Backbone:
């Protein structure tokens, strides 16, 4: 079965059903052409579509017909003339003449294009220049009409030789043929363009539907993945806690004295259990953040206390690696509306990451200062562009003197499980979850995080968080 759009285009190519004269010629241009021919010969000219719709008309008011219309018999005669002329059967050459009983004449010609009849033109009424006396039918049409007045008005009718009118008709037909060809070409060009646009739009709709289906499927898979991680992590944590607990009891000698080698083995079991527990906690946090089930308990938070606690917690790790930790907090910082425990988690992850990639004798600096964010800039304001123009914020920096992060990798390090060095021989361990959790927790505080170079070497994680919660109004 041919699609509707293709069938319509086929009809337009073959001038099939639905394509008429008015579709191929501009009405204004047609009217101007008809008027110019009327001015040339003086014979009234009307053009009708194939279904009888008047498309163009050029004629002055006919005084004779106006006078005839004032009498009942005259009106009946005019109605009869109009009906016969409009429905006149045309010959094989597409022409027909109608001599009225009242003395005037009409010429009717078909308008054809590409083998299809598109309409007809009617020229008249007119009389021969040699006709000086009206017919007896006209003079005796109605007793209410004066013969002298009819004689006078008859002489005012347009005058033309039949041969001249036929020449005009043939010229009109050739002119219309050119106009129809031009209009047909323009119509085809326009409709082919529209058909191309419709097809392109349909293809876009199909692709959008497929993309939406794929997107919905990916969302569902992501939800299932998060649920799977949460369930597995929760189920793993319970037996792992028991493993760590029993290994601690063995190390403390509650089950009897152990040799040094046995103690070392059990200590290794405990350490690896702790690493695995941290991984499971990270997976749980990530799944909660992705599913939106992790709630932030915000309150007025002292930033200096949080950073000092982070530095103290990470001090043993830093000393073991011979890395110095420095806390540099600007005086007079206001309290921040934040979840202190989650902020502590953010800076613990960033500090641990910095220590991990800093060589011995290096330095990690935790700093904080007052700043402001531009709410009209989504990158600074976390997309809160409808809020006030400037908002007070605190800018945190975790800077190290380590190996740094290549610029091409900086946008990807916040992806879950992503490692800059993903080879099996990489020196630094880790799961690749820490920075992903960091970014989500900062997003939950309406903040931003970015990475810059630490001249002359190393990397700086810059965290900007508004001091107070966002308010509208």
Residues:
């Amino acid at each position: 079965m041919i699609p509707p759009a293709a069938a319509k285009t086929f009809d337009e190519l073959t001038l099939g059903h639905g394509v008429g004269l008015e579709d191929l010629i501009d009405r204004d241009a047609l009217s101007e052409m008809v008027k110019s021919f009327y001015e040339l010969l003086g014979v009234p000219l009307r053009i009708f579509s194939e279904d009888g719709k008047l498309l163009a008309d050029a004629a002055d008011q006919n005084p004779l017909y106006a006078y005839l219309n004032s009498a009942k018999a005259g009106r009946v005669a005019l109605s009869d003339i109009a009906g016969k002329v409009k429905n006149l059967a045309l010959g094989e050459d597409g022409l027909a003449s109608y001599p009225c009983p009242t003395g005037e004449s009409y010429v009717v010609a078909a308008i054809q294009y590409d083998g299809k009849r598109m309409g007809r033109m009617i020229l008249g009424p007119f009389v021969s220049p040699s006709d000086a006396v009206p017919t007896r039918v006209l003079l005796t049409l109605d007793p209410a009409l004066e013969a002298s007045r009819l004689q006078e008005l008859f002489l005012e009718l347009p005058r033309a030789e039949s041969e001249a009118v036929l020449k005009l008709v043939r010229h009109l037909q050739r002119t219309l043929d050119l106009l129809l060809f031009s209009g047909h070409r323009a119509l085809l060009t326009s409709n082919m363009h529209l058909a191309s646009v419709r097809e392109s739009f349909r293809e876009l709709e199909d692709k959008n539907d497929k993309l939406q289906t794929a997107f919905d499927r990916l969302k569902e898979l992501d939800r299932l993945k998060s649920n799977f991680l949460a369930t597995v992590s929760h189920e793993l944590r319970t037996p792992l806690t028991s493993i760590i607990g029993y290994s601690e009891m063995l190390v403390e000698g509650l089950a009897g004295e152990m040799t040094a080698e046995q103690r070392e083995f059990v200590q290794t079991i405990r350490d690896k259990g702790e690493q695995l527990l941290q991984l499971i906690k990270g997976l749980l946090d990530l799944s909660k953040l992705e599913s939106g089930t992790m709630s932030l308990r915000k309150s007025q938070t002292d930033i200096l206390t949080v950073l000092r606690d982070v530095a103290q917690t990470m001090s043993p790790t830093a000393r073991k690696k011979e890395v110095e930790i420095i806390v540099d907090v600007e005086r007079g910082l206001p309290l921040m509306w934040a979840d202190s425990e989650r902020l502590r988690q953010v800076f613990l992850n960033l500090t641990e990451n910095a220590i991990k990639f800093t060589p011995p004798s290096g330095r990690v600096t935790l700093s904080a200062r007052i700043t402001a964010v531009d709410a009209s800039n989504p990158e600074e304001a976390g997309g809160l562009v409808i809020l006030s123009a400037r908002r007070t914020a605190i800018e945190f920096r975790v800077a190290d003197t380590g190996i740094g992060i290549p610029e091409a990798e900086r946008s990807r390090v916040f992806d879950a499980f992503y490692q800059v060095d993903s080879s099996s021989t990489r020196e630094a361990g880790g799961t690749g979850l820490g920075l992903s959790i960091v970014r989500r927790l900062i997003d939950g505080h309406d903040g931003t995080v970015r990475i810059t170079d630490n001249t002359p070497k190393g990397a700086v994680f810059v965290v900007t968080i508004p001091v107070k919660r966002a308010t509208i109004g």
Remarks:
- The two ends are 60 Å apart (CA to CA).
- Residues 383-388, 422-428 have pLDDT under 50 and may be disordered.
- The chain has three domains: 4-201, 221-288, 298-466.
- The first strand starts at residue 45 and ends at 49.
